[in-house]
Amino acid sequence: MVSEFYTPECERGVRYDDPALGIEWPIPPQIVTEKDRSWPLL
Prior knowledge:
This protein is largely without helices or strands. Helices cover 10% and strands 0% of the residues. The chain has one helix and no strands. The chain has one helix spanning 34-37.
């Protein structure tokens, strides 16, 4: 949720499968968007 207009150039994120995060997902992701695959690694 946001309180301002959408500003794509201000958007930030990290990859869901970044090994530095060490997340063991209980179910492997079935659909990952190109945007989510393109976030940088830590």
